[in-house]
């Protein structure tokens, strides 16, 4: 089979589409023929060598944290899945893989997949897996968003941001999106009550908010000051400055900055599918690439400035 692999740490040109052996599912595992995968921040920072403790230093390293496709084969002791099932899921981010979701086939534990929502193409499904699950966990579990609260989504045009805007709106909240002004119409259509241009809006001129969802990872202390009494803030944009701000917030004051590792299991993926089925969440795809053009998809992700996800389609 063909699989995209990291051949050394560096820029997108270290990615190669290699011919590798098709994996075989072991006990508790499933083999999925991949229809599509998406580009996530995790993929990019692993490729750049910023997560060596997770990825290791042995090459090649697989690419693609999420996928949507069809079950081909199940290993022993797998119940609830069979060949032909349409599924979506993730590769475990803490396990070291020679292949990931950006491949013609992927083997994962059965507790990391769930039925994909009806009516979505593999590309649309893949665009929602990590981004949607991250937004859902952030709002529902990390900050425990309540109906009627005022929410700021910072970096609202990205994959996690567009999902967070939709889910917060569906949860009955007043949603302010911070993004480029040119994305205002789309974000309003997704449920934002107000869209602020991040290029001309400073943190000291907005708020207060009950909840802030940050996908950027910078200036966290400034945005934390815009929380109302009892407010909560969660960031998924991890960096060295972000980690320092998170640590400081746990010491100084009650308005702690939260973070987490989005590692969705079957239950989360089923809940996510329910939000799609109900109409509360829909995919936002900016561009679609072939497996051979995965490096270009990574480059586009790193340039930023777009709304929605970059998706890689796979023809097995």
Rounded Rg: 19 Å
- The helix-strand sequence is EEEHHEEEEEHEHEHEEHEHEHEHE
Head-to-tail CA distance between termini: 8 Å
Strands, total number: 16
Tell me about the largest β-sheet. Answer: 7 strands, mixed
Q: Based on helices, strands and strand pairing, what is the structural class?
A: alpha/beta
What percentage of residues falls in helices of 4 or more residues? 25-40%
Shape: globular
Q: What is the overall pLDDT average?
A: 91
Please mark out the parts with pLDDT under 50 across 5 or more consecutive residues, or reply none: none
SSE inventory with pairings:
Blueprint: E1 2-6, E2 15-19, E3 29-38, H1 41-47, H2 52-55, E4 61-62, E5 66-74, E6 86-90, E7 105-109, E8 113-115, H3 122-142, E9 150-154, H4 159-170, E10 174-179, H5 184-190, E11 194-197, E12 209-214, H6 220-224, E13 227-235, H7 240-251, E14 257-258, H8 266-278, E15 285-290, H9 294-303, E16 309-313
Parallel strand pairs: 9-10, 9-12, 10-11, 12-13, 13-14, 15-16
Antiparallel strand pairs: 1-2, 1-4, 3-5, 3-7, 3-16, 5-6, 6-8
Question: Would you write up a description of this structure?
Answer:
The protein has 316 residues and is of the alpha/beta class. The protein has two domains: 2-120 and 283-313, Quinone Oxidoreductase, Chain A, domain 1, CATH 3.90.180; 128-258, NAD(P)-binding Rossmann-like Domain (Rossmann fold, 3-Layer(aba) Sandwich), CATH 3.40.50. The chain is 29% helix and 28% strand. It contains nine helices and 16 strands. Strands 3, 5, 6, 7, 8, 15 and 16 form a seven-stranded mixed beta sheet that branches. Strands 11-10-9-12-13-14 form a six-stranded parallel beta sheet. Helix 3 (122-142) crosses helix 4 (159-170). The relative contact order is 0.16. The model has no long low-confidence stretch (mean pLDDT 91).
